[in-house]
Amino acid sequence: MNIKAAILISVLLFASNDLFSQGGGPPMITTDPGTPGKNHWEINTTLGYHFLNQLNTQIPATEIVYGIGNRFQISVQLPLPNIEIDKSHFTTFTQPQTGVKYKISEEENGIISLSVYPQIIIPLQKDQKIQIFIPIEIEKTLGYFRIGEEIGYFVINNKNLVFSGTIVGYRLKNELEIMSEFYWSKTPCESHSTEGIINFGVRKQISKHLVLMSSIGTEIITPQHEEKDKLFGLLGVQLL
C-alpha cells in the first residue's frame, strides 16, 4: 500500500468545530491543530477515490470526534470497504482507527497553534498488525491566510514512513475557504522512495451545523517501481 492510500483511507477527517479556525483538516490530507471544543461533537462522512489503472473508491467513511475540554479530542473512524470498479465484486476492508489529539498551545495565547495527535490502526485479521501514526500539527494566521504544517512518523505494514504536509488556506467573505497543499513521504534508508503530491480543496459552511467540502489532487513525485496516481480526491460532509 502506498502512502496516498494509507493516508486517504486511514487519516481522512480530523477537524475543529469552527470552519475557519483551521488551515488544514478536511478535505485536505494535512491535519490542523484544532479541536472541537468542550463537549462538542462532529460527525464526518467522506467519499474518497483515486485512479490508477482503474477507479478505486471507498464507500463513505464515518468518523466521530468528541471534544474533552478545550484541549483534547478523541476520535473513532469505522472501517470501510474499497471497491475497484472494473473488477466485479472485488472488495477489501480497511481497519478501524482511533486517536487522541492534545492541543499544546493556541495562537490566541501565543505565537502559533500546536497539537500532537497519536493514532492507532487496529488489526481485524490474523495477518494484520497494529499500525501507529504520530503527527505534530502547527498553524499560523496571517490576515485572511492560514499556513499549516504537519510532520510525523507512520508505522504501517512493516514499513516506517516519515511525512510532512504544508498547506495554505485563504478565507473568503462568503464563508468559503480555498486551500492548497504539498504532501510528501519517504521510507527512511530506502533510496527512490519519496512520494509527493499536490492537492487543492474548498470548504463551504452552509449553516451553523453543516459544512460541505471537496478536494482534488495529483502525484508529482512517484517512488521507483510504483505507478503514478494521476488523480485522487475527496467529497465530504461535516455535521457540527
Features:
disordered N terminus, Porin, 3% helix, 240 residues, 15 strands, mainly beta, 15-stranded antiparallel sheet
CATH homologous superfamily caption: monomeric porin ompg
What is the overall pLDDT average?
Answer: 82
Q: What structural class should be given to the helix and strand makeup?
A: mainly beta
Query: What percentage of residues falls in helices of 4 or more residues?
Result: under 10%
What's the CATH topology label? Porin
Class, according to the CATH hierarchy?
Answer: Mainly Beta
Radius of gyration: 17 Å
Q: How far is it from the N-terminal to the C-terminal residue, by CA?
A: 32 Å
Largest sheet: 15 strands, antiparallel
Describe the protein in words.
The chain is mainly β. It has one domain: monomeric porin ompg (Porin, Beta Barrel), CATH 2.40.160.40. 3% of the residues lie in helices and 57% in strands. The chain has one helix spanning 3-10; strands spanning 41-51, 55-68, 72-77, 81-84, 91-93, 97-105, 113-116, 119-121, 131-142, 145-156, 159-171, 176-186, 195-207, 210-221, 231-239. The protein has a 15-stranded antiparallel β-sheet that branches. Strand 10 (145-156) and strand 11 form a beta hairpin. The two termini are 32 Å apart. Mean pLDDT is 82; it is low at 1-23.
